[in-house]
Amino acid sequence: MFKRTNPASTAAFTSAFTVAFLLAGLAGCGTAPLTVDDGRPLDSRLIANMRDFSEAAISFRPAIVRSAAAAGSGCASEYELPFDAMSTYGLDDDSRVAWVRALGLDENLTVIAADPSSGLRAGDVLAKVDGYKSGNKLRMADRLVEARDRGEPFSLKLGSGEEVTVSPFRLCRGRVLVAPPLDPALQRYHWSESVHPLEVFHQPLSADEAEWIVLWTQGLSEEGGARMKSYAFMVGSFKWLSVLGLGFATSSAVATARAGAAAAGTSATGQIAAAELAGQAASLMAQSAANRASLTGVSHVAAGVFDRADKWAFENMRRLGMNPAAGLSLHRKLVARAAASNAFLLDEKRLRAMQALVAGMPGGRAQPRGR
Questions:
Q1: CB atoms within 10 A of CB 314
Q2: Counting runs of H as helices and runs of E as strands, what totals does the chain give?
Q3: Are the beta carbons of 111 and 85 closer than 8 angstroms?
Q4: Pick from 97, 154, 95, 103: which is nearest to 126 by CA?
């Protein structure tokens, strides 16, 4: 998948490259010293959001690589890379310092997550992309995307002097984006890419849960792409204007074990606790339905096929040999954190459909309501 040679001896994801392009018009063309942390006061929540953003990138990249096996299902496809890179070039001073403090990332185009197949490591600085070098790191990010979309192997020269050849791979259309830390509640659903809010990532994802989100996003594109494009045509535009712009992008937690204990309890206190938890789950599922209904434009059209994306992801999880019940485990985590403003805390109808899919598996059984 890669070739790495050694002659001598983090803000844009490939998904975050989207952020880089939106910032490109605001960035200057000159060069400047790299940003360092000068100790200025910064919002601790912003720093935490940046770290969650990074953890999501790390979780997603191997899942994205694995998802290539689903491309044989006849889906609309596109090219992707086995790593994510990021630059803070063009951001305001506070944001640049925050990224340095949170993750040690500066204006250099830097790898923030990589599948082992890439031959890259987090922290590798991309000094040249396909032979191109520029002080404007957004132009380098642009060149990286161009190389990706050609679908042919290309070279990277690292800051260490090493050279790496990477090969784009084909996978089902529907890129996974994470809400930027200054706009953590952002959610947008589209046939080309979907933005998921940071509340989904405040707790680490299992490999199966990360795979579920990747496949679900691809399934949303596959199952709803035609409907979304028809809507966009009717309103006179095929162009999706993201509001990632300048922004990068508390739930009270209810322990899963405590919920299980309450449901099994026989005392009056246990029964009351169980009823409260069941009520909370029902309330959150109602909030999930309301969240879906509140979406507008193409996102509203996409919301009409969330259930079909569930089924598509379920079937392709089985194809990949992953746990297809991961959608339910992710749902339970989000219930425990009271995080309902996203696509993955299921409403009542979707929950029942998912439970039926799981029950139909060999050895499967339906899951309790809200769990």
A1: 24
A2: 11, 10
A3: yes
A4: 154
Could you tell me where the DSSP H helices lie in 37-168?
44-66, 93-103, 137-150
Nearest to 249 by CA among 56, 35, 14, 84: 56
Residue with tokens 């309902």: 340
- pLDDT higher than 70, residue 293: yes
Whose structure tokens read 């979780």?
59
Give the range among 158-167, 249-258, 335-344 with minimum mean pLDDT.
249-258
Q: How confident is the model at residue 74 (pLDDT cuts 50, 70, 90)?
A: confident
* Helix, strand, or coil (residue 318): helix
Q: Secondary structure of the chain: what % helix, strand, coil (to 5)?
A: 50, 10, 40
CA-to-CA distance for 347 and 118, rounded, in angstroms?
Answer: 38
- As a whole number of angstroms, the distance between CA 181 and CA 260 comes to 33
Residue 116 DSSP symbol: G
The beta strands (E) that lie in the chain are given as 2-5, 77-80, 83-86, 110-114, 126-129, 154-158, 163-166, 169-172, 175-178, 193-196
Q: What is the mean pLDDT of the chain?
A: 83
Give the separation between CA 174 and CA 192, rounded to whole angstroms.
5
pLDDT band at 223 (very low <50, low <70, confident <90, very high): very high
Distance between CA atoms of residues 214 and 322, nearest Å? 12
